[in-house]
Structure formats: structure tokens, C-alpha cells
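Field log, afternoon session.

UNIT: design team B
ACTIVITY: writing a sequence onto a fixed backbone
BACKBONE:
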């Protein structure tokens, strides 16, 4: 499907710089061939997993030590997957000598720091970037009052998830070394807007650090019509982060919607891969969609919009259809996407049907 997505643009003159505030129609920005044509077999045993933990997310960067460092989320498997993440997720770091892995756990990066901090009880959704000599760790966090619910309460469905979930915000931690120490902000960098479409939560941060040092930040919120994406911009990573559209930036026809965006700058335009929630764009529910934009506001599904499938080809010649394959992240080499990382689960599909989750890696054919 080739669509033209229009967004209502809110002009923020001093923040937008040379960005155009004019709606772009009919742009042809996609590279030759589809993103999925770049996928190579996934190495068996690659990626990152931890015994006794649900592992999710997974964003990789090459450190100043020349090794590869993955920032991921984990929480104990004794808790059910979704309910457990809402109360117990923490961001960790694992490392490997090779981008394919396997990655080995090293440390908890964003530990619990008390209910008085906005992110004091839960951290999740890490995505790692760099600006100059500063590592930028974008993530979501939450806090809540009182004791965390126990295993029995979470499994019974009686736990009040909203006391943590409704407090989810987007934050930024910075460090001069990939090993930290990480400086966490006293406030989120992006919060919900009362009375707006993104009034409930802001989550799923996708940050693109541009060549001029500015940052385009795409995020997700929940609406009665489904999940929607918004966009903000900052002149530098320090902020402030200001919305550049008063409305969602990717409004797909036919009731289709996406989540888990990942964005990057490619020449004179931006590219995005994200999770196709309905399958209406790619033809496969929860596969990956590929889209492009001239300004980060108006996005067009590519002529070949399927970025990846939940059916994975492995290096030993086998194929499996994963229950989940989402929260895509890329590792670049020489300015080109070289590896796709994704959170994955076994089972027939859906978080509650999974027995194991981990982060897998798929090498990409570099053009």
C-alpha cells in the first residue's frame, strides 16, 4: 500500500530551524527495493537472553571500548509478562565482542531509586544514541505509592495496573562512557498533555539525533481509536522537547495503526520501521512497516511497506514464526543500517501465551 499521510503542522519557529512546515504530498523517498530485501538469516544463539527473566526491547551501540553494548529491559519471570513489566521492569546493559552476540549481562543501568522520583519504581523501553562524546539513553519510567503487588495478585488480575501504568513518562539519562555513571533527570523530558490526544501516557520513545545536534523524538500514546504516534523536537539533546504537531503524525486509513517506532535520518529524509498492529499495511499482523518522511511529520508507507515478518530465517537453515517480533532497533556501521534487533517471544502469539522472551539480531545486507 502506498499512502499519503497528512499531519496538521504546528509551527515552532525557533525550534524548527530549516525544517519545512509545509505538508508534503506525493514524495518518493524510498530506496530501491524493500527494507525486507536486506534481511539476512538470524544467527542461532545470537542476541541476548537471561535465565529466569523476561527480556524485552534491546538497543545496541558500539562503546568507546570497541565492544558492543545492548541496553534492554528485564523483569523476573515469576511475574506474568505484561503485568510484571508495569511494576518490575528495569533497564540493564549486556555486552559482546560481536554485534551478533551473544550478549552477556553486565549491570543494572537504571535501578529503583524510590517512589519520590518520577522514574523511581520502573524503567523500560531503552533506546541508546550518541551526540558528540555523550551517550544518550532514552527510556520510559514510572513511579507509584506503596508496595509492589506480589505474584499472586498480579496473576489474579486484581492488581491495579493504572497506579503505575498511568504514570509512564519519557526520560533521558546521559553519560560520557557506555558504562556510566548515568545522570538521570529530575523530570521527564516529555509528559502527557491534558485535554489533548496524548493525555493518557507518552511511551515508546524513538529518538533521531540529527547531524546538526538537534533531536527528532517520535513517541506513542493511547487513544480510544487505537495507538497513535506523535512527534517532538529539541534544538539539542538537553531540550526542551517541544511538540511539532498538535495532532498524531501517522494517521493511517482504514483503522490501521502502529507502535514501537524506530526512526533515523537518511540523506535528505527520515525513515521509520514500526510494528503493524493490525496487519492492514503489510498484510501480516504485527509484522514491521517501513515508512519515509521529508520532515518527520508527514509519513508515507514505502512502495514495499513490509520491513520484516514474524517468520524468521535462521542461520542453520530453519524457519520459525515467532509469537512476537517487535520494538525494532538498528545498529549502524559506516552510516548504514547493518543489524536489526528486535524483542521476540515464542508461543502462538501474544504476550500472555509466551513461555520465553529474548532479543534476537538479524544482519542486514548493506548497500
Amino acid at each position: 500500500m502506498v499512502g499519503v499521510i497528512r499531519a496538521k503542522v504546528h509551527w515552532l519557529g525557533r525550534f524548527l530551524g530549516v525544517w519545512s512546515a509545509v505538508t508534503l504530498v506525493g514524495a518518493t523517498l524510498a530506496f530501491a527495493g524493500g527494507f525486507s530485501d536486506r534481511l539476512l538469516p538470524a544467527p542461532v544463539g545470537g542476541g541476548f537472553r537471561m535465565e529466569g527473566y523476561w527480556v524485552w526491547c534491546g538497543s545496541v551501540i558500539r562503546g568507546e571500548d570497541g565492544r558492543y553494548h545492548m541496553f534492554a529491559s528485564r523483569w523476573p519471570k515469576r511475574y506474568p509478562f505484561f503485568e510484571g513489566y508495569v511494576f518490575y521492569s528495569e533497564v540493564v546493559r549486556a555486552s559482546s565482542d560481536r554485534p551478533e552476540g551473544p550478549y552477556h549481562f553486565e549491570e543494572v543501568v537504571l535501578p529503583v531509586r524510590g517512589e519520590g522520583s518520577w522514574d523511581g519504581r520502573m524503567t523500560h523501553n531503552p533506546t541508546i544514541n550518541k551526540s558528540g562524546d555523550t551517550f544518550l539513553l532514552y527510556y520510559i519510567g514510572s513511579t507509584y505509592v506503596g508496595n509492589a503487588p506480589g505474584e499472586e495478585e498480579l496473576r489474579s488480575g486484581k492488581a491495579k495496573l493504572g497506579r503505575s501504568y498511568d504514570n509512564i513518562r519519557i526520560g533521558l539519562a546521559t553519560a560520557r562512557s557506555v558504562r556510566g555513571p548515568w545522570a538521570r533527570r529530575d523530570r521527564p523530558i516529555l509528559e502527557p498533555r491534558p485535554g489533548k490526544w496524548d493525555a493518557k501516557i507518552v511511551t515508546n520513545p524513538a529518538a533521531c539525533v540529527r547531524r546538526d545536534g538537534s533531536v527528532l523524538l517520535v513517541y506513542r500514546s493511547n487513544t480510544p481509536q487505537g495507538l497513535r504516534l506523535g512527534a517532538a523536537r529539541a534544538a539539542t539533546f538537553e531540550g526542551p522537547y517541544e511538540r511539532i504537531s498538535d495532532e498524531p503524525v501517522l494517521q493511517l486509513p482504514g483503522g490501521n495503526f502502529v507502535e514501537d517506532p524506530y526512526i533515523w535520518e537518511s540523506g535528505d529524509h527520515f525513515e521509520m520501521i514500526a510494528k503493524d498492529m493490525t496487519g492492514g499495511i503489510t498484510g501480516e499482523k504485527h509484522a514491521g512497516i517501513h515508512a519515509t518522511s521529508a520532515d518527520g511529520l508527514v509519513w508515507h508507507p514505502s512502495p514495499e511497506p513490509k520491513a520484516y515478518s514474524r517468520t524468521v530465517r535462521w542461520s542453520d537453515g530453519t524457519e520459525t514464526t515467532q509469537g512476537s517480533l517487535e520494538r525494532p532497533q538498528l545498529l549502524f556501521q559506516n552510516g548504514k543500517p547493518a543489524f536489526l534487533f528486535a524483542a521476540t517471544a515464542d508461543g502462538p502469539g501474544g504476550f500472555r501465551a509466551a513461555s520465553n522472551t529474548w532479543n534476537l539480531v538479524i544482519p542486514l545486507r548493506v548497500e
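LOG NOTE: The two ends are 24 Å apart (CA to CA).
NEXT ACTIVITY: expression trials, pending approval
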